[in-house]
Amino acid sequence: MANTMAKNFDFKEAERRLYQWWQEKGWFKPESAPADAEPFVISMPPPNVTGALHLGHALFVTVEDIMIRFERMRGKAALWVPGTDHAGIATQLQVEKMLRDQGTSRHEVGREEFLARTWQWKEKYGGAITQQLRLLGASCDWDRERFTLDDQLSEAVQEVFISLWDQGLIYRGTRLVNWSPGLQTAVSDLEVEREEEAGTLYFFKYPVEGGEFLPVATTRPETILGDTAVAVHPEDERYQHLIGKKAYVPMLNREIPVIGDAYVDREFGTGALKVTPAHDFNDYEIARRHNLPMINILNPDATLNANAGAYQGMDRFAAREKLWADMTDAGLTIKTQPHTYIIPRSQRGGEIVEPMLSMQWFVKIQPLAEKALDAVRSGAIQIVPERFEKVYYHWLENIEDWCVSRQLWWGHRIPAWHGPNGEIHVGKTPPPGDGWKPEEDVLDTWFSSGLWPFSTLGWPEQTPDLQRFYPTHVMETGYDILFFWVARMIMLGLWFTDKPPFHTVYLHGLVRDKHGRKISKTAGNVIDPTELIEQYGVDPLRFTLATGATPGNDINMDTGRVERNWRFVNKIWQMANFVTVNLDGDVPLGAPPPQALDLPSRWILSRLNRLIENVTRLFETYQYGEAGRQIDDFLWSEFADWYIEMSKYPLYQGNDAEKQTARQVLVYVLDQALRLLHPFMPFVTEEIWQHIPHEGEALIIAAFPIADARYFDDAAETQMTILIDLIRGIRNVRDEYKVEPGRKITAVASVGGFGALFDQYSYLFARLCNVATVTKLGAGENPPGESASVVVNEVTMYLPLAEFIDLGAECERLNKESAKLTVQIEKSRGMLANEGFINRAQPDVIERERAKLASLEASAAQIAERISSMCK
RNA sequence: GGGCAAUUAGCUCAGCUGGUUAGAGCGCACGGUUCACAUCCGUGAGGUCGGGGGUUCGAGCCCCUCAUUGCCCA
Q1: Selection from A251, A175, A264 nearest residue A207 by Cα
Q2: Which residues contact A572 (CB under 8 A, 6 or more apart)?
Q3: Confidence (pLDDT) at A779
Q4: Residue A857 CB burial class (10 angstroms; 0-12, 13-18, ≥19)
Q5: Nearest nucleotide by C1' position to the A637 CA atom
Q6: Of A855, A711, A727, A857, which is closest to residue A797 (Cα–Cα)?
Q7: Which DSSP letter does residue A781 get?
Q8: How far is the C-alpha of A327 from the C-alpha of A253, rounded, in Å?
Q9: Contact by Cβ (8 Å): A691, A2
Q10: Which candidate, A296, A314, A55, A350, places its Cα nearest to that of A176?
């Protein structure tokens, strides 16, 4: 069954071969589990079709694949639904850029042709990202891959829109929205980033009837042209006499009122506020309170329109300068001063977004938000880590209606029709009669992705997939799209399916560079995952991402860790190599019964079963990083460093039965560890598993280990710890005294209560610290004179090293050791003498403390004796 | 202005519901070609767990406060 392994793991070859094999075998599909298996479903956050693989993808694929592979191995019908998002704005921008490079534009080619070209572009480049996800080992069901613009998903979008309209939850109206002049579309609040920037505060005089002037300050002078009032605080003694009078818009001489409104901050600027309802959110509110007119002064491209009088046609920034210059000439300006204020910029492209009045479609979101709040409050949906629940509540409790229309071409066209007399009809087809024109706007890209968990499973049709796999289970994604996406999925899912779309939201952080800086092209710190995969293979990258992150926290990507984990992969490979070359014929699978085992085997199986228990618990609580670290530690620091080394005795010197038992344990432990590790490092584990004796076709569908309490063995762990500590102590002494590593030495042991342990296992010292013979010190015998001693628990090992030892140095060493013990003993005695501790601490904690103290005291006594007999 | 994180070894990070002598990797120092692995093995140095106060028998972990950094919301 076992076969010879190559000297090293050829990850490039194996990754391709294994992935293809798994997929061809259908193991990525839930149908590979028994028909009555419990489902476990994750909807993959669909990457943008425009996307190129970055570390963020690598992170989410790693975490979700771990979840999926774990549950698959636990026998569930694991389904991971992949797909891509049409990403309205992002994609349209890319295609527009392509057209620009070709010397044309979207307006030149027209809507129909533009869409045709975008589809072509999508066919050509849209597959790239999903191909790259395969490189990461993503075990998703590609037969169920979806795209947000697929016919069926578009059906779902229309269904939802129309039904929201029928329920009165969608309205169309002229409202103040964030307008992106470059893209010439409205964008939602979430798509606007606000940041402090250096600017200028302009002070000027507002002429008021009767020849007075009201001083006003503004950061955007061009908006003066759209002013419909000047506001002062009603209690402001400087200005309250002006309330109710007429003011005149500079350069336009348009007549507007001076109003009183408590919103005005008397401390800021001059204490008087110009009100531009069509281009400022606060002013908009003021205008609504006072029934002021709203004058839009901007065209869609942010040039000024006819309302701007002489400034019509100028760009907004040019108009700002020109108007200010003209006002200066007219004697209306006072001064300018540097001023830091908050600038709204588009999340895409970074241009300054203008608040602008425009006709848009909105979703009345409060009723949906209520349900979404309840779902988390009631625990029907759990957010990991929990602290994000607060963030979620805050956003939903203060939510504003959702502007869902976009003046783009690439996206789901709003299913509405404009009648000849300005009527609106919402529906998939126009009503009977002539003159109905389709709505031009498309929907916000998040509208369709908000349906993702159920639209990908066939909704609104009651498909078998929808019935079996919905609701899904875990939504794993980045905390940066909690509002954009997660909250909307919850709202729409609850509203349209009456079920939470998933029971758990697991949020991961952002991948940053080694020093915690955001990764960006301009910072020059881009880390390309494909390069790392090329160099080290994908397993080390996955392991690094999985073990380097805790839920909700950003992860700093240190490629040094990838390299280290590449060495870990090699290390596992070499362990497997050791195991396989030492096989001879068939070996029984499974672990031998505990009573048939020697101490090292009882120990490693005890450790293994504790590991299994821990890893399972950690997986179930989403603590993947800790789980990975524990497996790593077990394999390298326990299995390889100690068990494999110790197994060489039975393997090389034992009788047939001993050899066979050792082989069986080696194979069993390796097999179990590979199973634990498989979700993290699918390729190397599968490849090795195929080389060791095993039952079943593939590791990917092998059963996840279950801890067997019969193998928990405290006594074996205690005894092995003593042996290990003694060996370490002896190595330490050898190193300190510069005894050549090749030199065999002898030891005399005072064994305390561990006589039987030494009778059976003192042979271990030969190979592990080159102590050729260990002699037990008989009762009443004196220890050797010129020797170093290593003390652990009740055991002292004397190493007669006359030629190496300087008595003074040895005494110093012992005194140091003794002092260390004294500190610990005092602390421990103090605890045990403390009534509060004895009365209140858990009994097992007290018991552990007593055992510790006993061991420390035993060691201290022996060292003290040694010192008194040897040192003056 | 409100909120949330983070602050642990030179660097990057773990540390679960408070309970052994606070851990790992990298880096560093010293030493190693013995039959799985030099992509390795052994040994070691290195931390007043950001400061201060508190709760507790017991605090890296809980509470208060301050500082620094980052993020979210307004």
Answers
A1: A251
A2: A635, A677, A684, A685, A688
A3: 81
A4: middle
A5: B24
A6: A727
A7: P
A8: 12
A9: yes
A10: A296
CB-strand contact A549/B, under 7 Å: yes
- Give the dihedral sign, CA A722/A723/A724/A727: positive
CA-CA distances (angstroms) from residue A675 to A32, A92, A466, A686, A841?
Answer: 18, 45, 31, 9, 38
Q: Do residues A825 and A853 lie in contact, with contact meaning Cβ atoms separated by under 8 Å?
A: yes
Bridge partners (DSSP) listed for residue A204: A216, A333
Q: How far is the C-alpha of A26 from the C-alpha of A32, rounded, in Å?
A: 6
Tokens 């204490």 -> residue: A271
pLDDT tens-place string over residues A554-578: 888 888 899 999 999 999 999 999 9
List pLDDT tens digits, range A734-793. 988 888 888 899 999 999 889 999 999 999 999 899 998 999 988 888 888 788 889 998
Is residue A828's beta carbon less than 7 angstroms from any atom in nucleic acid strand B? yes
Question: Tens of pLDDT along A663-709?
Answer: 999 999 999 999 999 999 999 999 999 999 999 999 999 999 999 99
Q: Using the structure block, give the residue that is written with the tokens 């006709």.
A: A359
- Please state which of the four CATH numbers 3.40.50.10490, 3.40.50.970, 1.10.287.380, 3.40.309.10 is assigned to the domain occupying A808-872: 1.10.287.380
Closest CA to A1 of A825, A774, A836, A667: A667
Which nucleotide lies closest to A555 by the C1' atom and the CA atom?
Answer: B13
Q: Domain A185-354 falls in which CATH fold?
A: Isoleucyl-tRNA Synthetase; domain 2 (3.90.740)
CATH of domain A563-700: 1.10.730.10
Phi/psi of residue A851, each to 5°? -60, -40
Any strand B atom closer than 7 Å to A635 CB: no
Q: Residue A274 forms beta bridges with which residues?
A: A230
Query: Of the candidates A87, A152, A151, A160, which has an alpha carbon nearest to the alpha carbon of residue A122?
Result: A87
Taking the C-alpha atoms of residue A174 and residue A157, their distance in angstroms, rounded to an integer, is 23
Quote the pLDDT of residue A185: 86
DSSP A814: H
Within 8 A by CB and 6+ apart from A688, the residues are A5, A572, A573, A576, A670, A674
Distance in angstroms (rounded) separating the CA atoms of residues A490 and A485: 9
CB atoms near residue A765 (< 10 Å): 23
Q: Which two tokens stand for residue A766?
A: 């030969």
Interatomic CA distance for residues A379 and A389, integer angstroms: 10
Q: What is the pairing mode between strands A333-346 and A192-208? A: antiparallel
* Neighbour tally for A58: CB within 10 Å: 26
What pLDDT, on the 0 to 100 scale, is given for residue A3?
59
Indicate whether A2 pLDDT > 50.
no
Tokens of A236: 């402001």
| Nucleotide with smallest C1' distance to residue A636 CA | B37
Both tokens assigned to A392: 């979620």
Whether nucleic acid strand B comes within 7 Å of the CB of A371, the answer is no
Question: Phi and psi of A429, rounded to 5°?
Answer: -130, 160
Q: Which residues of chain A between 184 and 203 are close to nucleic strand B, CB under 7 A?
A: 189-190, 194
3-state secondary structure of A297: coil
Through-space separation of residue A736 CA and nucleotide B31 C1' in angstroms: 10
